[in-house]
Protein 1
Amino acid sequence: MIIGINCGHTVSGQPGCGAVGRIDESVETRHVGKKLIELLLAQGNSVVDCTNDYAESTGANLAEICRLANKQYLDLFVSIHFNAGGGRGTEVYTYGGRTFNAAEDACRNIAALGFNNRGIKDGSNLYVLRHTSARAMLVEVCFVDTDDADKYLKLGADKIATAICEAITGTKTPTVTQTTEEYTSTNDIIWELHHRGVISDKALWTGYCGSDVNVYWFCRKLCQYVRTKTRVESEKNEYEDIGAIVWDLHHRGIISDAALWTAYMKRDTNVYWLLRKGLHWCRTH
Ligand SMILES: [Zn+2]
């Protein structure tokens, strides 16, 4: 895997630096992140360090982090943070609050060390989730300004890094995540998408799936997504722009090859409408 790791914020005391309580966020994101990079490399992964130490402002720091992340393909982008404001526990932000194994396991593995599990949260408005093109998660390890910080100091950064590393690589999954088995038969997939109002012409799309393996896989992944989706999002306006549609589907993990689907949508109006309506369903249910 190729993983981008961002130790959140600039270094302590600089514009764009993190929160300070009983511990200093900028210092600890680096302790955790550097150890995490070491662990991932030791397991044979490629790592891109997306940390930016000095910037003129918070905005410049965030933009530079995304520039570092988007310079190359990444399987996953992980930004490490610590929370502030008097709460307790661990939380992980993803685009749209989508759950995937690495995010759920990061939350659960860190919480298992003695923190409250605050769960997966919608981070659609967070700059580094919105502006990175890879699948992304932002980990808020724990709070810097409550007794969370004392727990953290007792544990040490290495234990947190190990918990995140195991979540990313799936080397040790404490409990099996409940999964909905993916439909593989075209009939099941098309029935389901029709039933949910994503497509209207069953015969058209059955024909497509039989003759075009890319469309089959899109429908299969879309079907799995709609079947397992639980969150209701407030977004309502339908995306019409090909770039926006492809970007969003990619962020949701439904498609991986953005260039392939951009070209498809331009040359095949049926495929354009399939992706447009498919995404709209995902954004409004
Ligand atoms: Zn932060």
Protein 2
Amino acid sequence: MEVLIRRAEEGDVNEIAELEAVCFKGEDPWSAGAFYNEIVENHDQTLYLVAVIDGRIVGYMGVWRILDEGHITNVAVDPEFRRNHIGEAIIQEMIRLTSEGGTQSWTLEVRVDNEAAIKLYEKMGFKAAGIRPKYYEYDGTDALIMWKGKEL
Ligand SMILES: CC(C)(COP(=O)(O)OP(=O)(O)OC[C@H]1O[C@@H](n2cnc3c(N)ncnc32)[C@H](O)[C@@H]1OP(=O)(O)O)[C@@H](O)C(=O)NCCC(=O)NCCS
């Protein structure tokens, strides 16, 4: 199974939004318009990557570059392709590319009950740094704040 990881383009927006709707069903998924803003309108501040197998997008992630920090907005892998180290590969590539551009630390919020994602981020060197109470407005769940590359 060959996985290609590349920068997302305007033509990927609808396919990413379709995958988002599957991966975040019931969790306030982002619309195609939101991804368009991120990938096209805010191209200079963001980096969006997709993982592609046989021409099909099976994973994506996004990050905002703010000074020397990377703020991760979303990471998701198609349910049919999970546990194949695709999530890990996309994050690794994002870290490599943003490091080259001067990013020194990375942060994200994750639902406190999202064990798969927390385990993935821990494996990638992220550490828990606090809680944002009721961060997810659609059901009032807290977010765990995680950082990599920063003294906590
Ligand atoms: C979280 C998510 C992106 C992981 O993607 P993935 O490609 O399946 O993850 P990987 O195969 O790269 O996993 C890497 C490591 O993460 C951990 N991990 C991933 N999924 C896990 C699970 N279901 N349970 C426990 N650990 C898990 C493991 O340590 C794994 O390493 P290992 O396989 O050597 O044990 C995927 O489950 C997903 O899309 N979830 C829904 C969307 C979401 O919640 N995104 C995060 C929002 S903050």
